[in-house]
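Pasting as-is:
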Amino acid sequence: MLFVAAAGNSNSDIGFARLVPADIDLPNVLTRMSGTSMVAQQVTNLAAKLFARYSKLMPGEVIKLILDGATKSSDGKRLLINAKASVVLLEARH
């Protein structure tokens, strides 16, 4: 099972941040940095589409497809999901 977690606010107390799902370091948890409260649902949607196209994918494979398909923002600080690129990568691998 894949879990997509929003990272939370950057000014949150570190004691609190360690308890939220975004801080869990597991191969089936995907957390992107700043802005995740707005993009977590988009990443979840893309993950669902990838699973729908190839149901035998493992969570780690979906995470890799999403990250490998992402493009860097113009300032180079963020990864922006690119659904089309992720689907192309999936189709090339399967």
